[in-house]
Amino acid sequence: MVIEGARSWLAAEPRLALRSTGADLETLLADEQSPVDVILLDLRSGGRLVIDKVAELSRAGRRVVVYSEDTSPDTAMSLLEAGAIAFLGTHEPREHFVQALIAAASDQPYVPPVLAGAIVADQSADRPVLSPKEREALLLWFQSMSKASVARRMGISEHTVKQYIDRARIKYTRTGRPAATKAALLARAIEDGLVHSDEIGPHARHSEPIEQSGYGESA
After folding, report:
1. 82 and 17: one domain?
2. pLDDT the model gives residue 28
3. What pLDDT digit, counting tens, does each position of 169-187 carry?
4. Domain that holds residue 98
5. Residues 11 and 101 in one domain
């Protein structure tokens, strides 16, 4: 029923193309005939919870949007921490379903209502906690490196670099302090002591005016 419902919604959206479907994640991935931009993952795939698969897929560079009837704040936030690009409740309307998938395909975070509620309910401190890899990616990016250069420096894919940066943005959104641009994210990171100004270098500090968050890279 979930698969047929998703198929129906996707068929009416010209910006999205459904490549394959399946009730079992391993079988689905093994049978892929062409590359996919986004995996829409039912949290109860194959009759069991597959929370562990989200982190595994994320580490493999996959963009994952989780679709679940369990919309508790703890579940939603734990899946974001595991690397999901977005979290959707099965009761949410087609508009959010489609927009979450389109945003994920462009490596952009999307906050549908159920996730917004989870963020509001989250009791985390105002200062986000970044993983060592997230901080390293941000620091190199702030040092006027392109994401491709950061990827080469860290020995990872450019997509993974984008994931680290997007996760940092999501964490700031969770604290009620969004940072949509590179300049805004740099300002937040310096404010919170996650990055020190002397680590950035004179070129980045002078080329990215952090007081004006409307400037800078938005990717």
Report:
1. yes
2. 66
3. 888 887 878 787 787 788 7
4. 2-121
5. yes
Which two tokens mark 182?
A: 């590179």
Q: Is 61 left (phi over 0), alpha (psi -120 to 50) or beta?
A: left
Cβ neighbors of 209 (< 8 A, separation 6 or more) are 183, 215, 216
- Give me the helix-helix angle, 158-174 and 147-154, nearest 10°: 110
**CA-CA distance, 152 to 170, in Å (whole number)?**
24
Helix or strand or coil: residue 160?
helix
Q: Does 214 map to a domain? A: no
Contact (Cβ atoms closer than 8 angstroms) between residue 109 and residue 162: no
The reply to whether 86 and 144 lie within a common domain is: no
Residue 170 CA to residue 86 CA, distance in Å, equals 10
- Confidence check: pLDDT of 151 > 90: yes
